[in-house]
Design goal:
The chain is of the alpha/beta class. 41% of the residues lie in helices and 19% in strands. The chain has 13 helices and 13 strands. The longest helix is centred in the middle third of the chain and has 19 residues.
């Protein structure tokens, strides 16, 4: 049963001084696109800033979508690049707020340390969209357990049909990030059903990027030189592939699979003889475009979603053409409700006058 969140308004002045938002997990109802508009925020620049954690391709896709939406809606657009530095990101968010920027989308590096700065921005009335981690006006997440399960099921099918049911598996995880941990739980649960599978390494790289995956795989290869399957985020699995190739341990019959649908992973899958066999698309340019639209709607006083799912889909050599078409033109996908619904699902309603109801808990549509 859905719990409908109360939309009782607080005054902008009182809320701007502080407010914790929704701290208790609730199951949000479906987004109501017909919800009436409310008072628009005033005194803000018609500007959208992407506070970007690092330069991995997934985040570049978010930026492409945001920029396209800003251009379509007449917002100035810029990027604040934090280069994996959480202290710098806090300074950037605080500076953007002082500049009276009307909207920002952030990919938090260290969510707990960034939260106080974001709460002030939200309380002041600007739009804050966040990739996975709260607090935010709109939180973007994926159904993380399902995302991991889709990838693991693709790997399991390959192990059964191509590897005789036996495989040495490496899981490159981010279990320290509580919001992403369910995807790796799903991988373990799914692989456990195959008695011939041995997980020889289950480890979180120091950094969630190609370098992190490369360094971790180099270490793993010292103890386990023959690996059959590698699963994780695309960016770290691509780094692992580089290490395998460098060591002469990459084989066409291996199954490397990732999450995010990054362009380099797509290129590898299209080769046909690459160990990279699948990527779970989270279509970052499409949800980036949606968040840019929500930012513009917020500044117009419209009611927008409190949360949004980006729905996972397994990319293989057979369906990549459609995916590339859609991600190259996210505006066309957003404008077509049926196509949009295959990528996005929206929940809850919030606008400037009800901003005290911002999400400040680890939201997931999978929460019971």
């Amino acid at each position: 049963m859905s719990v409908v969140v109360s939309l009782a308004c607080l005054s902008g002045a009182s809320f701007a001084t502080g407010g914790d938002g929704l701290t208790t997990s609730v199951k949000l109802p479906a987004y109501d696109a017909a919800r009436a508009s409310c008072r628009a925020p005033i005194g803000f620049q018609k500007k959208l800033v992407f506070v970007q954690d690092n330069r991995r391709e997934f985040m570049k896709g978010v930026g492409r979508g945001l920029e396209a939406a800003a251009r379509a809606r007449g917002l100035n657009y810029s990027v604040a690049f934090a280069n994996n530095d959480p202290e710098l990101m806090i300074k950037q968010v605080s500076g953007i707020a002082a500049d009276k920027t009307g909207a920002m989308v952030v990919a938090p590096i260290d969510p707990p340390s960034l939260a106080p700065a974001l709460k002030k921005v939200i309380g002041g009335g600007a739009y804050v969209g966040a990739v996975v981690a709260p607090p935010a006006t709109t939180v973007l997440n994926a159904p993380q357990y399902l995302t991991g399960k889709v990838l693991a099921e693709s790997a399991s099918h390959y192990i059964r049909t191509r590897l005789g049911g036996k495989a040495k598996v490496v899981l490159l995880t981010h279990d320290s990030l509580q919001f992403l941990a369910p995807r790796f739980t799903a991988m373990r649960d799914t692989l456990r059903a195959l008695p011939g599978v041995t997980i020889v390494a289950d480890i979180s790289p120091a950094t969630v990027d190609k370098e992190g995956g490369y360094r971790t795989m180099k270490t793993i290869l010292l103890a386990q030189p023959n690996i059959d399957v590698v699963l994780g985020a695309d960016t770290v699995v691509l780094g692992a592939l580089s290490a395998l190739r460098e060591a002469g341990k990459a084989r066409p019959e291996q199954f490397l699979g990732g999450i995010d649908g990054e362009q380099e992973a797509v290129v590898e899958i299209k080769k046909g003889d690459s160990p990279y066999k699948a990527s779970i698309s989270l279509a970052s340019s499409i949800f980036g475009f949606a968040m840019g639209q929500h930012a513009a709607d917020w500044l117009d006083g419209k009611s927008i979603p409190q949360a949004m799912d980006i729905l996972p889909r397994a990319l293989t050599s057979g369906n990549i053409a459609d995916y590339e078409r859609d991600t190259a033109n996210p505006g066309a996908v957003y404008a077509d409700p049926s196509r949009r619904a295959t990528y996005l699902k929206m929940y809850g309603n919030i606008c400037f006058e009800t901003r005290e109801n911002y999400i400040n808990f680890p939201w997931s549509s999978e929460t019971k």
